[in-house]
Amino acid sequence: MTTTTTDLSSLTGSYTIDPSHTRIGFVARHAMVTKVRGAFNEFEGTATFDAANPAATAVTVRITAKSIDTRNAQRDEHLRGNDFLAMETYPEITFVSTAFTQTGEASFDLTGDLTVKGVTNSVTIPFAYEGAATDPFGNLRVGFEGAVTINRKDYGVTWNAALEAGGVLVSDKITLEFEVSAIKNA
């Protein structure tokens, strides 16, 4: 049974992100001519939402850095190393919300502290509420999608290589993509 409302007010409660139905991904420009897409395969997250007090919304996400996956083993190993994520020293990427602002009936901005490679910066991610449904196991499941562009250098991820024809191998701007399915806790 799908809930057809697009109104966030019916969603009061605590939720757990379902990793098997959620994608936390990214896009980077490669060699100035194409895009490389990737995702993190291991993460966990929780959210608490109170329609009567949306400002009290709390979201926490913990991503295992070594779970980065761009479908190229050699590139993934380079990304896990000290040139990029330095996962031995910084095994987690985290996001902890600090503000929630409803921007429309089915949209909101989620602001929070994003920590990558030990550096924390505030980011605001615009999200769209995609709907709710009761799954075959009787769980209320909600969906959200959002994306934000960050500058990787703001997080100490500065490695690059100059190209002969000009430009660089990896873009500074990285788009983070979130396709979230969360299950309401009993």
From TrEMBL:
Domain Lipid/polyisoprenoid-binding YceI-like: residue ranges: 14-183
Superkingdom of source: Bacteria
Cross-referenced InterPro entries: Lipid/polyisoprenoid-bd_YceI, TTHA0802/YceI-like_sf
Similarity comment: Belongs to the UPF0312 family.
Protein name, per record: YceI family protein
Organism of provenance: Micromonospora zhanjiangensis
